[in-house]
């Protein structure tokens, strides 16, 4: 029986992208580049300045938690794959090869892998980045399988890093590991592709990845708020009724399946990064801010007296249902205010695969990433983006940590 790496490598070198696949690749390039540019002054990008280019770009693409997500695998696909492709001189087809492998590996690892504490963006990301970089270099299938095996030592990362620089840095490590593995494979390094099977079993994988379907099965979710995907739905729900809230908010009750809040590990955040993984702060920013943008996720915003008060008034009910995943069931939010109670139910937030972002929503996101971003990305091209990121995130910038 063929190894997992060999099967995925054969798929990656043999699939034929459709127009829909190519459109997804273009949107992913646009979205990932925009959120990376928005993070150009973030402290984490300075910390990462001494890392290789794929790692630097991946850290920038992920640290704001505004990047896309493959919902089925809970993996931030493009933050890993776009930098790996760009650093290797590739374009859309290499992106789709890597993104497709990452989604398939993530699906096969399953929800239990994520709930066990693994960060699927890194575990599935490192071998998938090796595929993306290898495809960009034009390597044959047998070399792709070897590159995946060479990336196994870096195929880790844990959810405990959420709310710290460690989260985006481990995503950077995964992207860089894939590029490094591909270069070693191109140079003739040997490895046993069955190492991927052994790793897959050790981290809880069962069965084999499903090869059928479009390039990226299930598509990718685009975020419209710069925070964890588990917060997109409750924020969107509250924004539907925000204008109806009168007077002081006395209490807020949130009911959603337990699986949908798995990444939300900070009930009382005190930093902007922690607030990106907090259900109480999702409620606070949705009610306080006209639009929860980057300014809503600063340390100062999180520690506003009004935000602290609202967070204390949030009561959560997370039933342990049979459904798994970040979009299981629906969220139900009740807001008690001024002698009345408002209720809203929501299944799919804006940007979800079942509710793709509209043109205006995507344009608003690009604009939120910086006044210059829409113009810079008016006609994105892989080579042009590569040059843009090289200028924006040079190695060892002045003042960077060493």
Automatic annotation (TrEMBL):
InterPro entries cross-referenced by the UniProt entry: MmgE/PrpD_sf, MmgE/PrpD_sf_1, MmgE/PrpD_sf_2, MmgE_PrpD, MmgE_PrpD_C, MmgE_PrpD_N
MmgE/PrpD N-terminal domain ranges (all copies): 58-196
MmgE/PrpD C-terminal domain boundaries: 225-373
UniProt xrefs under Pfam families: MmgE_PrpD_C (PF19305), MmgE_PrpD_N (PF03972)
Top-rank taxon, per record: Bacteria
Family named by the database record: Belongs to the PrpD family.
Protein name: MmgE/PrpD family protein
Species, as recorded: Saccharopolyspora griseoalba
